[in-house]
Amino acid sequence: MGQPIKWQNREPAESNFQISGLTLGRRWDFSEIRSKFGESSEVERGDAASGRDQICYVSPSGNVHLIFELGEVNAVLYLFEGGAKWNGSDLCARSPVLSASISTASGLKLGIAPEGVKNILGAPNIETPSKLAYYFGFRKKATPEDLSRLREENPSMSDTEFRKNFEYFDVENYIEARFTSGKLTYLAISKSETY
């Protein structure tokens, strides 16, 4: 929209990144997603740094889509109702567990009004009559499990250098909600983690 974005320096609730018992993150595993929603074709999108793997599901009615993407440092989900076909939409698998009532653990779901989204996420960075957009950026301390894994991957690094590089990591979250006639019809949730 031509305006610089000021990131909100706060960590939104983890429940905003959970759907059907799955938590959005770069350690996502498509097999875990498939165990919840069924078999689906994996598609590669983009290349190099923007490359990502994607799987897509569609409700039995054919009107609701849920897409999962995994990239090198980010994970994204898209939930939307209606819309035009796109290149690859025919690869979306029908899932009997997908419907318009699916929601994040925090309650973000199709059909809610903008005020409902703001009640869950707080004040947005961008607000128009048809869109709310949120940008969150913050540093987070690595878990002992992450540090153990990273130490195995970097055995020659000194303890000082290791702590400097891996004790904390940067997280960027982006959430976009679009509305038609005052009801949520498109939700994009992205989580990016970089050391």
Describe the structure.
It contains four helices and eleven strands. It has 195 residues and is an alpha+beta fold. It has one domain. The longest helix is centred in the last third of the chain and has 10 residues, at 144-153. The two termini are 29 Å apart.
Please provide a brief summary of the model.
The chain is an alpha+beta fold. It contains 4 helices and 11 strands.
* Uncertain residue segments: none
Structural class: alpha+beta
Roughly how many Å apart are the termini? 29 Å
Strand content: 35-45%
Number of strands: 11
Largest beta-sheet characterization:
9 strands, mixed
Blueprint of the fold:
Blueprint: E1 18-19, E2 22-23, H1 30-37, E3 43-45, E4 52-58, E5 64-71, E6 74-81, E7 93-94, H2 114-121, E8 126-128, E9 131-141, H3 144-153, H4 159-166, E10 168-180, E11 183-194
Parallel strand pairs: 4-7
Antiparallel strand pairs: 1-2, 3-4, 4-5, 5-6, 6-11, 8-9, 9-10, 10-11
